[in-house]
Design brief:
Helices cover 41% and strands 19% of the residues. Strands 3-2-1-4-5-7-6 form a seven-stranded mixed β-sheet, sandwiched between helices. β2, α3 and β3 form a beta-alpha-beta unit. It is globular and about 50 Å long.
Length: 241
């Protein structure tokens, strides 16, 4: 397990609540990810289905999460969905490889890997369930140097920088096709909150203003212009053999 179940559940529910307060930001991330996914998708860290709902037009969706409450809620949210399989599972466990039976052509892991103690093992397991040419899509918190009280409060073990990330995925047998920063404005805000004011959480007002005023413009600009910094890394990996 990632942590004790009750603690993991608290982090997961906090993330879900944060998504509801930043609807436009989450939809931006979801749009980036869905454009890169195939017809048979394995979602790691499905939570209560905020992203899963974007995948239900696919041939097959397999969602896993370590939190039983999330798994139960997701099943209840989409009852009788013939192309949806939901299981309680930890990506670090060897049984994760059993998911290869569903023949996923892509894996998606949005704002999840930073919660996993052994990210190297997680990447190796993703490699093992994908076919040659299969894709894995991640959104990760960017810049190791930005790690601070907010990250710790959210249950993050780490943040990621581009070059160490490239080396990590290569060691797991995956090739990076896309590694780019997103949300340049959020990066500045995160630095101010984490490093200057040492805050342990983002304020409701900050989230609301960012989501309503900045995201609609920023998402359009960054679609065409890659920023030199970002709050997150958007990355697409490919299994080469």
């Amino acid at each position: 397990m990632l942590r004790e179940a009750s603690t993991t559940a608290e982090y997961t529910l906090a993330d879900q609540q944060r998504m509801t307060r930043a609807r436009r930001y989450f939809e931006w991330q979801a749009r980036l990810a869905t454009e890169q996914l195939g017809r048979r998708v394995l979602e790691v860290g499905c939570g209560m289905g905020n992203f899963t709902r974007h995948l239900l037009d696919r041939e097959m969706v397999v969602g896993i999460d370590v939190v039983e409450d999330c798994v139960s809620r997701l099943r209840d949210r989409f009852p009788g969905q013939p192309n949806l399989v939901v299981r309680r599972m930890d990506i670090q466990d060897p049984e994760f490889r059993q998911l290869k039976q569903y023949r996923p052509d892509s894996v998606v892991c949005l704002n999840v890997l930073e919660h996993v103690p052994d990210d190297r093992r997680a990447l190796e397991h993703i490699h093992d369930v994908l076919p040659a040419g299969g894709r894995a899509v991640f959104i990760l918190p960017a810049f190791e140097s930005l790690y601070g009280p907010i990250d710790a409060n959210l249950g993050h073990f780490r943040r990621y920088s581009k070059q160490p990330w490239r080396e990590l995925v290569a060691a797991a047998g995956l090739r990076p096709r896309v590694v780019r920063y997103i949300n340049s404005v959020g990066c500045i805000g995160w630095w101010v909150n984490a490093k200057v004011f040492k805050r342990t959480e983002q304020s409701e007002d900050q989230i609301a203003i960012f989501d309503s005023l900045i995201v609609p413009v920023l998402s359009r600009v960054e679609r065409w212009v890659e920023p030199p910094i970002g709050q997150s890394i958007f990355t697409v990996l490919e299994r080469t053999g």
